Amino acid sequence: MKPSRKYLSLPIISLQEGQQIGYVKSLILDASAKALAAIVVDRKGFFKDQRIIPYSKVVSVGEDAITIDKESHVEKTSSLPELLDLVKEKLTIIGTKMVTETGKTLGIAEEYYVDPETGKITHIEISGGKIEGFLSGKAWISAEYITTIGHDVIISQKDSENTLTVADKGLSESFKKLMHSTSNLASETTHTISSYFKKDKVRTVSPPDSDKELVIFPESDPIPPVNQTISEIPIPKEPLG
């Protein structure tokens, strides 16, 4: 799916002539079909009057350009009566209030998304109103729940607020995953530090250097234990006088 803003200013290239014939100036909407009807070409000096390309003539919508078969598919608005009324209507989605059939305000349309192959609108992004998101307060509603796209209001089906995909749900889940991974990292770090200090307490004795000669001291008489009795040696008395 492609946001409508991504279409704007894309170069338009004709495949047969191999020429760039202009840029996307704006998009023409068909409210009843909930789809793009045509692309308005930015003339850039090529044409004196407004030219459009019916969306059915678009070959491909890429990341960097839009392609059509040949330059002749760029036509004057006056030569396409089936699109003339839509061009004059100048219908827009962005900035329009969205309300349910029961009169509940969902918010303001901020963007809409298009299937590049068919031109069908798939989702509308809304914000504000009753939507309170985690960070940005945005939500998305599928185009299948849209009943009317008007100049002042976009109408959605009854209870369609229950079908919204709210941004904060996805963000809060990501936040939980982030907290979980952070907790695991802290636990692993604590375990590593603990293991380091445990290893530091164990003393290691290096083996003797094999190149050095060992010096052996002679054995000395053992020191008698404290409780062992030492025999008295008689000391001769010197004669008096």
Automatic annotation (TrEMBL):
Domain PRC-barrel: 9-69, 93-155
InterPro entries: PRC-brl_dom, PRC_barrel-like_sf
Biased composition range(s): Basic and acidic residues: 202-214
Domain of life: Bacteria
Region of interest called Disordered, as start-end residue ranges on this chain: 202-241
Protein name per Swiss-Prot or TrEMBL: Photosystem reaction center subunit H
Organism phylogeny: Bacteria, Bacillati, Bacillota, Clostridia, Eubacteriales
